[in-house]
Amino acid sequence: MSLEIGSFLSIGLILGVVIITAALLITVERRLLGFWQERLGPNRVGWFGSLQVVADMIKIFTKEDWVPPFADKFSFVIAPGIIMTVVLLSFAVIPFAPNIGVIDSNIGVLFILAMASLGAYSVMLGGLSSDNKYALLGSLRAAAQMVSYEVFMGISLLGVVALTGSFNMREIVESQADGWYIIPQFIGFVIFLIAGVAESHRLPFDIPEAEQEICAGYHTEYSGMKFGMFFVAEYIGLVLISSLITVLFFGGWLGPEFLPPILWFSIKAFAFIAFFILMRAAVPRPRYDQLMSYGWLFLLPLSLVNLLITGVIILSMQ
Amino acid sequence: MAEVVVDGVVYKVNPDNNMLQECLSQGLDLPYFCWHPCMGSVGACRQCAVKQYRDADDKDGVLVMACMTPATDGTIISIEDPQAKDMREKVIESLMISHPHDCPVCEEGGECHLQDMTLMSGHNYRRYDKKKITHRNQYLGPFINHEMNRCITCYRCVRFYDDYAGGTDLAAQASHHHTYFGRYEEGVLESEFSGNLVEVCPTGVFTDKAFSENYTRKWDLQVAPSVCTGCSVGCNTTPGERYGSLRRIVNRYNSEINGYFICDRGRFGFDYVNSEDRIKVPLTLNGTGMEAVSDEELQAAIESYRGADVIGIASPRASNESNFALRSLVGHENFYSGISDSEHEATQLILSLARDTVFNFPSVREIEKADAILVVGEDITNIAPRIALALRQSVKNKAKELAEGCNIPTWQDAAVKELAQHDRSPLAILSSFTTRLDDVASDVLIDSPSALPGIASAIAYKISDKAPSVNSNENANSRIADQLVSAKRPLVIAGSSAGNIGLIQAAANIARALNDKRGEPIDLCLVVPEVNTIGMSMLVNGTNSLGVALNKLQSGAATKVIVLENDLYRHASSTEVDAALDKANGVLVIDQMPTRTTAKASTLLPSTSFSEHEATYVNYEGRAQLSFQVHRSHTSALPAWSWLSEQQREDIDVLINRCAEEAPNFNKLDNLLPDLNEFVASMKIPRQSHRYSGRTAMKANLNVHEPKQPVDDQSVMSFSMEGIPVTSDTPVLGAAWAPAWNSNQSISKFQEEVNGELKQGHIGELLIERNESGDYLDVTTPKVSDSGLQLSIAYQIFGSDELSAKSSRIQQRMTDAYVAISPSDAQSLGLNQGDEVSLDSNQHVAVACIRSKIKEGTAALYCGDNDIDRHALGATIALTKITDANLSRGIKGLIVSDLYEEGC
Amino acid sequence: MIKLIVDTLLSQVRTLWLVFLKLFKKKDTVEYPDQQPYMFPRWRGRIILSRDPDGEERCVACNLCAVACPVDCIALQKGEMEDGRWYPEFFRINFSRCIMCGFCEEACPTNAIQLTPDFEMAEYIRQDMVWEKEDLLINGTGKYHDYNFYRVAGKQIEGKDKGEALNEAAPVDVRSLLP
Question: Bridge-partner residues for B638, per DSSP?
């Protein structure tokens, strides 16, 4: 079986690698956070703590999977499934390497944005069905935050799309052979980075699950593997956002010949994963109202201006 | 109303008071030591220094003592003035020079007025580097600890003990900074009110010895407002519990009854509650002995006491609810009085007088206002001690009257006392023997029991000739009559304890004669011996006396009997009770402690003590008061009303409401229940202080998993520290505490004004309506034979009350049964002091006590803790000396000064 | 406005950079139990009851530790020796509730209750975390070596008559008239 787009081998590889990476990230993040806080982090299980993830998995699988009697059972159960599904589906259009990928879609960017929007249902349903005031507050925050940030996330990408002239992710990568879009689209990159963090509600924008204020937000009532699915989905989302940045602004698999393209992709993606973890270690969480006004009053105009200027430049270049 | 300015704020105050009192009334914090709300000002401690200004323009001002400054209109003072504050700080610094480093090992710590005032005045470091004065302590008896080092010489102790309570054996000794407060030599403090020294002393010189042996800090006590069950006065108390045992009782302020003081019987007579002898589980007679039974068998045994042939015998020491529950169970016609027949007759007479419009049954506060008093045949100090303390205040009304004539404010304690010297309001006592009030009495007429009603009737006739005519030429009689007629507020006292109904009739006639003369309701105080004698009697039919009940049992008209918290042997002769109980088919006894009656029970149910249940009691004036549950019983004991109510464990609220509906005269009883709806968010009132400690450790030795706090679903109070804070407007006040006021002096924060009613109200509910008019009564004279000595019953504060006599503390002060006789009778009988004598030549043995102040031909018999079957004795007794007795009895427990004159 | 935005942005970048540099710093973690940490003498660990320099129990059962305790995990009962000394009849600390705040030590007027650097108090059975006086009382003075409350207090005990405490004059003769 050859490694080509859409082959079972390719699909299986992507699915396996993404999930295992996400799981490993649990350990990696804890170690990195430790280092950045002048601690050691988990180092007891396995060599330098490498088996910590195994211990964590055993724990999370064997925990009691409790559904609160007051919860709405159906929505409560499907909510974590939705988020897992949509983030994994998003990987379908990611071009990992010239020959690795699930589909080569002409509307790749739109597909990603659509999946991200569906993700909002998961946290909303999870919070609402829990019948818990913390969960409700968390899901309200999550819904508002995700819907808001999707707006300029999309707009910030339009510069890239305009430059390429296509929604196809592979074409976007290939069109960067002469130079990565980070240079012409720097502002777009910054906005996408911020929106991406907000979209995956990672720190510093983890307002929907801010422990200090609302317990654990929308997944307060979740336990066992259902919680685990929210937990792992967050890390998969992290991988997804990093991959997207790599694809859209850093030339995807492109790089000098001495390394295979998939490795270039991995190195770039991992650098952004590490950057997100660094942000978690360094940047404090803003207030909810600050987050919303920052998005609508600053990022939205900025992304529109960015799109306008890009358009003007493209028109004047023709 | 006068307007005064304190720190720039205008207050409306009472000009008859001093500034300290009025500042406290307004809720201001001003330190003080020597002043006491009940004892006026002497200006000794200099602690309440404030700045006084001549007028609004005066900026300098002068330092004055607030307690010595009248609150006249226009007075301008400053508490916050730096100079005044500095003065107060220096004063307390000098007071503290010799105060020992004792707080951790001092029983007063945590409720110490000195601690509070030191903190309030700002002193914290002893700069004086010379040595501290020390003193040796004295043994002051089983009640009071003495630790003289801690004294700050405020003189409150002697002002209370000597001036207020009339004690003679505590005094200030030595001089200057060697001043010593104690007895001339070590020994038991004699006053019946010595326990109040604990609360009066602002620091730890006098502390509660009983409490110290079972010590807990104030904040750790679980408390609830309670009512003393020691006598019929119904003083308000605050019992405190910790680790499941009752630790102490302190006074709880009630403006109408006890004010700031209670007697030693009430304060120290409680530890039977913790006794190992308590009946702990329900028992039934099985063959030969009593044994515990299963719940079903017990239920069956209780169920068998329903039917027409069951009678119930009530109890004067059980609550209204218990008595009412019994009455509901057996039916009104089968519900019998639990007091002796003579007392029953007297109490029914008292109840009829209580409905008569010409009389007013005065509260203790009203007794203190009387300025001419006649005590007819009662030894008040030993029957209703708190009233005796009030009488000692009412004789001072003469001094107040003199002071008012000289424009001296009545709160100027030293000046008023100096002015009056030994001039007192008249207090006349008719008695068969000397009483403890003789030292303040203007006339003491001692005569035999059979002659006393005659003397009293003669006084009535002297007052008004509408009274039944009795001829007498005694000067004393006319003098007493004149004093009563000319007084502003005369008071006549009698009671049922003397066992001589003629005395009550004659006292009522005197009061009626006074009413004829003056046309206003006359204070007539009729005391009864036990806490709920009046309440019980109000529930009983007048014809249902104990004698009838016993006859009914003996004749077989009733086969079963329920005896409610009552030792029948105290109220009827042994032969009668034995005959009745032996004949009965079943005897169900409910009681707390084993008695001779419980020994006769076929079913014995344990009941809770006063601190273990919520209940109401009716005092001598017909005032019903609610006493709350303080702690839970750790045995199977239930409140007696719970055993008796229709569905077992009927709610107390339901029972009180039912009693108010069904029992005549009790219709106001339900007013006593505080309304939970008034409370903030329906929060309950905590029984524990907000500082209650050790909650997660006190039961951890049993199980580290803490039990849930017990839930009290019946009361407005909870067994917890959560609820409405004490400082806000809780309608129920357990222990007083206010920020910066940890001692009992914090009570001023809860009074409408100093000495006024509590903001919480709850001074009880007078149950009996006065709507009848009566006429002069025929006075019964006891029939006596010429042989032998006329019998007069004597009581002792320590020993005559059934339950307190079972307390170990009280037992240390109790004396054996004695018979007091005059020296000439002793001589003719050949008796010496301390000889043992038998009464009527039977097995009853008492100690002979020869006293000079007793009528010849009269014997005053004190029965001890029911050692003597007095109901078997007639109106006269014969005494025989026992020579071969080896019973080692004595009269050591008698107060020494009682016998001092006898050289004993 | 622009300056504010740039400053803010740079400040965030600087933060990220500084935190990133911590990757190369020496770590503070002490790898207990492989490595025993140094415990400072005033560390607030296991609570003990000490004795005074004469070997008598220091605790006088004044209840101040119990009332200071924010989790109410100290319970005790005062007892009294023949000579008037106060002592705790029982003294119980529920360590499963204790938060090692040290308020009890602050409150103690006799230096009896002290917190020690020992923190290894875990138990498999929660009941074992309830310590009685026998478990708490040590044979020593703890951190404070010289203090003996009864030498300072005015209360008379065996071996110390009235007037023999620190800074006390001999008892007054009440019958004397001398100044």
Answer: B607
Which of B102, B134, B693 is opposite residue C72, by nearest beta carbon?
B693
Q: What is this model's ipTM? A: 0.89
Whether residue B862 contacts residue B818, with contact meaning beta carbons closer than 8 Å, is answered with: yes
Q: Give the closest of B100, B131, B180 to C174, CB-based.
A: B180
Residues 197-226 of A with CB under 8 A from C: none
- Per-residue pLDDT reduced to its tens digit, A176-209: 888 888 888 888 898 898 888 888 888 788 888 8
Map residue B861 onto helix, strand or coil: strand
Q: Is C175 on the interface with A (CB under 8 A)?
A: no
With an 8 Å Cβ cutoff, are A283 and C15 in contact? yes
CATH number at residue B295: 3.40.50.740
- Collect the ranges in chain C with pLDDT lower than 70: none
C-alpha distances in Å from residue B556, one per residue of A149, B559, B585? 96, 6, 9
In terms of DSSP bridges, do strands B2-6 and B9-13 run parallel, antiparallel, or are they unpaired? antiparallel
Among the partner-chain residues C75, C163, C165, the one whose CB lies closest to the CB of B694 is: C75
A40·C31 Cβ contact <8 A? yes
Same structural domain for residues B540 and B408? Answer: no
- Cβ neighbours of A293 (radius 10 Å): 12
The greatest distance separating any two alpha carbons of chain C, rounded to the nearest whole angstrom, comes to 93
Question: Residue C142 maps to which CATH number?
Answer: 3.30.70.3270
Q: Which residues on B lie below 8 Å from C62 (Cβ)? A: 103-105, 109
Find, in chain B, the residue whose alpha carbon is nearest to that of C59: B104
Q: Please give the Cα distance from B713 to B709 (Å, whole number).
A: 12
Using alpha carbons, list the distances in angstroms from residue C158 to A308, C49, C83, C161.
96, 22, 5, 7
Going from the C-alpha of B375 to that of each of B355, B362, B433, B435, B457, the distances in angstroms are: 21, 14, 13, 11, 13
CA-based nearest distance B262→chain C, Å: 26
Residue B222 lies in a domain: yes
Q: Are B415 and B408 in contact (CB under 8 A)?
A: yes
Q: Are residues B209 and B222 in the same domain?
A: no
Cα B419 to Cα B70, B324, B370, B396, B410: the distances in Å are 19, 53, 20, 11, 11
Q: Give the confidence band of A173 by pLDDT, cuts at 50, 70, 90.
A: confident
A residues 263-282 near C, CB within 8 Å? 278-279, 281-282
Chains B+A touching (3+ CB pairs under 8 Å): no
Chain C residue numbers with beta carbons less than 8 Å from the beta carbon of B185 are none
CA angle A263, A269, A273 (to 5 degrees): 140
Is residue B899 predicted with pLDDT exceeding 60?
A: no
| Amino acid sitting at position A317 | M
Domain of residue B826, residue span: 789-900
pLDDT in tens, B420-443: 988 999 999 999 988 889 889 999
Q: Count how many residues are written for chain C.
A: 179
Q: Are residues B497 and B365 in the same domain?
A: yes
Q: Which member of C19, C29, C31 has the closest CB to residue A282?
A: C19
- A37/C contact by beta carbon, under 8 A: yes
Name the minimum distance, in Å, from the CA of C32 to any CA of chain B: 29
Q: Are residues B467 and B323 in the same domain?
A: no
Domain extent, residue C139, equals 51-152
Among the partner residues C67, C110, C168, nearest to B217 by beta-carbon distance: C67
Closest CA to B229 of B332, B298, B320: B320
Sign of the torsion formed by the C-alpha atoms of C156, C160, C166 and C168:
positive
Q: Are C62 and C75 in contact (CB under 8 A)?
A: no
- For chain A, the domains span 68-317
- Phi and psi at C47, nearest 5°, equal -90, 140
* Chain B residue at shortest CA distance from C70: B693
Q: Is residue B563 part of a domain?
A: yes
